[in-house]
Design brief:
Helices cover 39% and strands 26% of the residues. The chain is of the alpha+beta class. The protein has one domain. Strands 1-2 form a two-stranded parallel sheet. The mean pLDDT is 96.
């Protein structure tokens, strides 16, 4: 299970992934 799914691995998507990781939110990044 994950808390957040990020669609798009561009600059904005990876920035969101970094912020989510800092808040200990489990994420999946889909390119």
């Amino acid at each position: 299970m994950c808390d957040c799914i990020i669609i798009g691995a561009g600059p904005a998507g990876l920035t969101v992934a970094v912020y989510a990781a800092r808040k200990r939110i489990s994420t999946i990044v889909i390119n």
